[in-house]
Amino acid sequence: MKHHLISAADLTRDDAVLILDTAEEMARVADRPIKKLPTLRGRTVVNLFFEDSTRTRISFEAAAKRLSADVINFSAKGSSVSKGESLKDTALTLEAMGADAVVIRHHASGAPYRLANSGWIDGAVVNAGDGTHEHPTQALLDAFTMRRRLVGRDRGIGRDLAGRRITIVGDVLHSRVARSNVLLLNTLGAEVTLVAPPTLVPIGVESWPCEVSYDLDSVLPKSDAVMMLRVQRERMNAAFFPTEREYSRRYGLDGDRMARMPEDSIVMHPGPMNRGMEITAEVADSDRCTAVEQVANGVSTRMAVLYLLLGGAEPAAPAPHARTEETK
């Protein structure tokens, strides 16, 4: 792996599979009475959040603490940033404090790349979401969830998602989750189809490694996983569709539509959900919806990322065939 994780495009297939395999080992830690490893003891991880996010920040904090790292949570609100301090000065302050890794979430696309390539900081930089650009660890936890559900926990080790058909539905235009997922899933061999209103499809999408459709009903019967995206009204400065009811009628997932999906397919959502708009309560609360699993898997996946960036380049546990004292 590279020193930083800025984009899903930074990952080769081997890198991605290594992270997923390591996340599988980290997930086993969650089943223990004491959910800690000493791997990053003495290391400092800073959560540098210029944008609000409860789910992602807590997930990274839990991941770092389970690896025994010291964690500093930095929020732009109430800090020197709100008084006009620049990203450079903030980075230099963190460097002076001895940050080994900086997990950054920023409203400006490209901010993590700027931080990683500026020379302001020597530690690893992890992109936790930048503008409408990317969110690579979300794509990794989504891929981890898909591999567990579609391939199987035991049989998934060392495997990718080759040949799996993944459909991503909704507000693709404003979704960094969609961008990272398209890149990573293509690297892992999956076939990705985007479904959205024409107004919510990005310019230049023809260069993305995926198909585009405007007809959800035609795609559902051949989808192994359907990922519903939240409509991000906070990023919209115009009317992108007539009404919420019209959007839900054409692009929302309800029980009838879910019934048209293959029997063993799954429904995903990166959260938070607009229940009743892009997804109904019936679907969100069904056994086929992995939204809660994705949150749990996020901790394991981010543990794997931090471990591989700061701790080592090999999986955190012996290979499955290796014998231990317990199995002798």
From TrEMBL:
EC number, UniProt record: 2.1.3.2
One GO location term (cellular component): cytosol
UniProt catalytic activity: carbamoyl phosphate + L-aspartate = N-carbamoyl-L-aspartate + phosphate + H(+)
Any one GO MF annotation of this record: amino acid binding
Record: residues binding L-aspartate: K83, R176, R230
Cross-referenced HAMAP family: Asp_carb_tr (MF_00001)
Family: Belongs to the aspartate/ornithine carbamoyltransferase superfamily. ATCase family.
Subunit structure: Heterododecamer (2C3:3R2) of six catalytic PyrB chains organized as two trimers (C3), and six regulatory PyrI chains organized as three dimers (R2).
Name of the featured protein: Aspartate carbamoyltransferase
Annotated source species: Streptomyces jumonjinensis
